[in-house]
Amino acid sequence: MIRSRIVGTGRAVPTKVLTNADLMRMVDTSDAWIVERTGIRERHILEPSLAASDLATEAGRKACDKAGIAPALVDCIIVGTVTGDCPFPSTATFVQKKLGARPGSCAFDLSAACAGFLYGMSIADAFLRVGQFKHVLVIGVEVLSRITDWTDRGTCILFGDGAGAVLMTAGDDGGASPRGLLSTHLFADGGLTDILLQPIGGSREPATPENLATKRHFIQMNGREVYKHAVRNMAAGARTALEVNGLKADDVAWVVAHQANIRILEGVSDRVGIPMSRFFTNVDRYGNTSSASVPTALDEALEMGKIKQGDLLLFAALGGGLTWASAAVRW
Ligand code: COA
User: In this structure, are 103 and 208 located in the same domain?
Assistant: First the structure.
């Protein structure tokens, strides 16, 4: 059976670090409050001269290098982002040029907030299995610092910037004990658009001086509601991935989930019955980097030697929309 597989990963992390102590000088908060409620200790912030495509290109180049595939052989670049370089053209087209991928190859962005990377992986999987493309680069990138209100302590403690990428290709899955992408599941509930969004900057409320004065071009979030749905839906998505593949919680070597908040991950761990010792976490050092968080965590877990060939990986993410997604991968 033809199955798609991740053959290279990469990440790009801005050099500037913003610690909880730094935030304490900006808003009325404390390190203890932030760590207890979120598990976050620091996050990385992109320097003003750079944009999402710069981070995305760096992560994409590293994924190509690790796979040993020249950028000129990449047939399609999918970028999951809600903080692209500009509303149009797509960030993926900037990445194609900066990476030195082929003019004429496919490049597009997709908008599924923090689930954007897993949505992208699912689309790449479909392209690869039908044989439309041979090499697909999937990138999650966010520069959330540019849409964060740094005077709002309810949101500014949560977010960070970064990019993660995977290079995917397809081939025979090895028969009896298949390796590669086993399944992806994508979900959305448009009844919950109002609990996590950036209202201003699109066609409904353009970025006019009057609208900008309301500061609603920054992330607006009902934290409690998002928290509740994040635990419930990420756990449900993860359970679906297990059930569809006839797998049990004990079969999972690593959960690589969206790094929104350590308490959300603990809630998912409880509901799915997989101990936190098998959740890879780096939210303490990066904060919530939205679509970048899953591929960044995957790349870091691989670099640390935690993932071995044959390991079952369970992916899950949830973001604005709401959108959520899960995937099962035999490494
Ligand atoms: N420092 C100190 N106090 C803060 C604070 C901060 N950074 N932010 C909020 N508070 C205060 C509130 O003002 C409130 O004070 P009050 O009781 O005097 O009114 C109190 O802490 C409780 O606020 P609340 O918003 O109810 O806290 P919470 O326990 O829900 O935690 C979040 C807030 C944001 C950490 C939590 O709701 C959460 O993690 N939500 C999910 C967010 C997320 O992951 N979003 C992205 C998903 S992709």
Answer: no
**Which CATH number is 138's domain given?**
3.40.47.10
Distance CA 95, CA 76 (A): 11
Same domain, 31 and 157: yes
* 170 sits in which H/E element: strand 161-172
Q: Pick the catalytic residue from 64, 76, 114, 156.
A: 114
Same domain, 146 and 185: no
Is there a single domain that holds both residue 237 and residue 114? no
Q: How many CB atoms lie within 10 A of CB 155?
A: 20
Active site residue 106: no
pTM: 0.97
pLDDT digits (tens, 9 = 90+) for 6-31: 999 999 999 999 999 999 999 999 99
258 an active-site residue?
Answer: yes
The mean pLDDT of 108-130, rounded to a whole number, is 98
Pocket flag, ligand 1, residue 37 (CB < 6 Å):
yes
- Residue 158 identity (one-letter amino acid): L
Per-residue pLDDT of 197-213, as tens digits, reads: 999 999 999 999 999 99
